[in-house]
Amino acid sequence: MALANQTDPQQAAVDLTRWLRTKLPDATDVAVTDVDIPQASGMSNETIMFAASWTAGGTAESERFVARVAPTGEAIFPTSDLAGEFRVLDALGRHTDVPVPKVWWVEEDTSVLGSPFIVMSRVDGRVPADDPPFTTAGWVMDLSPEDRGRLADNGLQTLAALHAVDWRGIGLESLAPPAGQSTFDAELARWRDYFTWAAAGDANPTVEAGFAWIEANRPASEGETVLNWGDARVGNLMFADDLSVSAVLDWEMVTVGEREAELAWWLLIMRHHTEGIGAPLPEGLPTAEQVVARYEELTGHTVQHLRFYEVWAAVRLSAIMHRAGNLMIALGFLPADAPMKLNNPASQILAKLIGSDAPSGDAQSFIGNRG
User: Fold this and answer.
1) Which member of 15, 90, 231, 250 is catalytic?
2) Which of 6, 79, 197, 268 has its CA 20 to 30 A from that of 14?
3) Which of 147, 149, 153 is nearest to 245 (CA)?
4) pLDDT on residue 38
5) Cβ neighbourhood burial of 28 (10 Å; 0-12, 13-18, 19+)
6) Do 85 and 162 belong to one domain?
7) Residue 124 CB contacts under 8 Å (≥ 6 apart), including other chains
8) Angle at 276 between CA 306 and CA 160, to 5 degrees
9) pLDDT per residue as tens digits for the range 77-110
C-alpha cells in the first residue's frame, strides 16, 4: 500500500546540502550526493536516501543518511509526530540494545523539504515486503524453511527485548496516558477518534460491532504497561545477511500498552498476510500457538486475554483499512464504488473473531491496488 513520491531528487540534493550546512556550521566542503527516492514508500511518510560528505577539523567525514519526511497531503493518519518518533529512537539508541537507526536531527521547518522530517543513519539489510507479501513471494520465500523459522524467531526475540525496556527510565515518560486515565482507556479513546476521522461519515457495521464487542468484553484489569512499538510485525524489521535484526523500523504508532496488545498485532498481521489473502502459512514460520509459547519462554510472562487483544488489533487494522480505502478512492487508485473500505481481509477476520456477519462479497485487499 503505497503512494508515488513526488520529490525531485536533484532539487532535494540542493535543499539538503543547504540545510546540512546549518547543522554542521564548523564544517567545510559539505555536499549531498546519491539522492535516491523510492518510487513508493507507504501512505504515511516519504523516504529520501542520500549520502553526505564534509570536512571537520581537517578530517574528511562521510555518512549515508535516510530522511523520513512527513506527508504534505492526505495520508493514513491525520497528523504526524516525527519529533516524537525522534525522541523514542534517540532514547532507545542511547540507552538500550534494541537495534534502531541512529538519529541525527529532527527538522520542523517546512521550508526545507516542504514538510517536517527526521534524518537517521542508513542501515544495511533487507525488509520483508508487503506488496507482494513476503508470505507469497520474494526473498523470504527463497529461504529454506529452517532459515524462515530463524528469521521469525530473531524478530520475536527483538520484540521481547523491546518489551523489557524501562521506558520511563530512558526518558519516555511523555508516552504515559494522562493522569487519571488508564493505558487502555487512553488507547480506546484515541482509536475511537481516529475511526470517526477515518470513516469520514461512512457507516462501517463491522468496525462499529468490533468497538461494541471491546466494550462488552474488556478484561477486569489491565496488564503490565510496556513500550509498544505500535506496528509490530516482521515487515517492519530489517534483517542482515545472517538473518539477525539490523533495525526496527516505522515508529509512527509508538505508544505504551499491554504486552498482549502488541503481540496480538504481530499475530494479526501474519494472519492477514496468510489466511486473510488466501495464502498458506509458509513452511518454517511459526503458528500463532508457537509464537505465543515462544514469547512466554523469552519473557517469562504468561499471555492473558489474547482473544480480546486479537479483536482489538483487528478493530484498529479495520479502521486503518477504511481510511486507506477512502484515500485510494480520493486519489483515483480505486473506483468510487470500491468495496475495500468496508470489505477487506482485516474486516473479514474481525467479523470472524467476534461472530458477526462478515461484509458481503469478495474482500478487497490493498495489495496490488496502487495505480
Assistant:
1) 231
2) 79
3) 153
4) 82
5) exposed
6) no
7) 240, 246
8) 40
9) 999 999 999 999 999 999 999 999 999 999 999 9
Domain of residue 340 covers 139-354
Per-residue pLDDT, averaged over 149-170, amounts to: 98
Could you give the number of structural domains in the chain?
A: 2
DSSP class of residue 130? B
Q: Is 241 a catalytic residue?
A: no
- φ, ψ for residue 321, nearest 5 deg: -65, -30
pLDDT score of 4 more than 70: no
Q: What is the CATH number of the domain that holds 160?
A: 3.90.1200.10
Distances (CA, A) of 254 to 96, 230, 263, 293, 313: 16, 4, 14, 25, 14
C-alpha cell at 221: 484489569
CATH of the domain at 98: 3.30.200.20
- Alpha helical stretches, state H, the chain: 9-23, 82-95, 139-142, 145-163, 183-199, 205-217, 259-272, 288-299, 306-330, 345-354
